[in-house]
Design a protein that fits this description.
The protein is α+β, with helices and mostly antiparallel strands. Helix content is 55%, strand content 10%. It has a single domain (3-192), classed as 3-Layer(aba) Sandwich (Glutaredoxin), CATH 3.40.30.10. It has ten helices and four strands, in the order βααβαααααααββα. A four-stranded mixed beta sheet has the order 2-1-3-4, sandwiched between helices. Helix 3 (40-47) crosses helix 9, helix 5 (88-99) packs across helix 8 and helix 6 (103-116) packs across helix 7. The longest helix has 18 residues, at 56-73.
Length: 194
């Protein structure tokens, strides 16, 4: 059975959009999915890439593009305040949620809070409440997050070593697909790998 490895960062709005459909995509292709949190800022630093907001014309276009995609997918979009935000705590907490067997529900809850609810998930209290809503012990999970610093660095470096330079980064075996708008190709690759 083919596997989709979905590398994502909560600060990435395109990863949010992709997160709303990767499970259905994998199911249609008869594949499994492995959610892989990584630090997009670390990827940018390692590869020399830049966030769209660092390029004025691209940043201006990004918000219109996101609105178009949200409309097409029928998903809510309310950018968080502030943006951009530090996602380090939420990502380390994601790895703690993974250790508790609840990575996917946690990830969906954080994405909804940030990109549909406009919440500041960099705030530990907000993040703990979101994790609690996802069926976890939010305060304990956030308290455990610092212990996942090395694991997050390692997972980020793995993505870079495999060629990632942006988010979301989707791997089907050795094949890399960057972006929400490449998911049709991801599905084709999953079907071909069966």
């Amino acid at each position: 059975m083919a596997t989709l490895e979905f590398f994502y960062d909560f600060v990435s709005p395109y990863s949010y959009l992709a997160s709303t459909r990767v499970e259905a995509l994998a199911a249609r292709a008869g594949a499994t999915i492995r959610w892989r949190p990584f630090l997009l800022g670390g990827v940018f630093k390692a590869t020399g890439n830049h966030a769209p907001l660092d390029i004025p014309a691209k940043g201006k276009h990004m918000w219109l593009d996101l609105e178009r995609w949200a409309g097409r997918l029928g998903v809510p979009l309310k950018p968080p305040e502030p943006f951009p935000f530090s996602s380090i705590l939420s990502l380390r907490t994601a790895l703690a949620a993974e250790a508790a067997g609840r990575l996917v529900p946690y990830s969906h809850a954080v994405y909804r809070a940030a990109w549909a609810g406009g919440k500041d998930i960099a705030n530990p209290e907000v993040l703990a409440a979101v994790a609690t809503e996802a069926g976890l012990d939010g305060p304990a999970l956030v308290a455990a997050a610092p212990g996942y610093k090395e694991a997050l660095m390692k997972q980020t470096q793995e993505a870079v070593d495999r060629g990632a330079f942006g988010a979301p980064s989707s791997f089907v075996g050795d094949l890399l697909f960057i972006g929400n708008d490449r998911l049709d190709f991801v599905e084709e690759a999953l079907r071909a790998a069966r």
